[in-house]
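[Meeting: bench + compute handoff]

Bench side (C.D.) handed over the final construct sequence. Compute side (W.E.) agreed to return the predicted structure before the next meeting so the bench team could plan truncations. Sequence as handed over:
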Amino acid sequence: MALYGPDVSNNNFTNTAAAVNFVSRLPGEGFSWIEEKVSEGNYYRDPYWAPIQEWCAANDFPCIGYHYVTTNDAASQAGAWRANNGGDHAMLDFEANSGDIANFWRVVNAFNAEGVQISLSYIPHWYWQNIGSPDLTGVPGLVSSSYFGHGNYASALYPGDGGVGWDAYGNATPQIWQFTDGALVAGLSVDCNAFKGTETELRALLGYPTGETISKPSNEADQVSEVWDQLRGPNGQGWPQLGGLTIVDALAQVRDKVCGTNDYGKAGQ
């Protein structure tokens, strides 16, 4: 049975609240991951990547950002990704106006030089043909596209595990198939993908090799938030495994039992 995940970008949302509402509904509707645009060329940064990525990190929901490849200088494209905190794993969107296969590899190498691993490569069959049907051997995580209807739920539109979107081309076999450009997902009509495998295999493909979440962007505000969470517990309500106590309160109880003190350091009677 296939797992499903939508592909979205700034084109799908009108504001941050709409983006967060969309991603927050995905687990309840049976989706297993999300692909969200991070950057394009060396000139565009998607404003909805940060809130979607942050929600996914906080809720252990797999996500991966993608970069739309252009013919701009490859290093500057990798710089645009980094400037929008795209993370250490990326999906390349290689289609209209992305250049030839040599440009694809230039961008892969530029991202690698920035410490970013390419996990997925969206190279649709039609564009592969347009650029001369090059050899795709070694392309990381090939993603194909072949659309089968729209205006219905993803599971209803998916043609099945034997569908044409799984056929190999360019000496590479698709790992993910974008099978519709109009699935009904969380109240919107969006592109949707299928993956044939387990949740664990999906996580590994997206860059979660041990089943862990991708870290939140490293900045001062996030670090302060993380420290607060560790001290106070989820939402400041204490830690369930400590009986609802904070770390400080739990340590105080341990001290009282070991040292016989109470009332924050006064000798016990």
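W.E. noted at the follow-up: The CA atoms of residues 128 and 134 lie 7 Å apart. C.D. will use this when planning the next construct.
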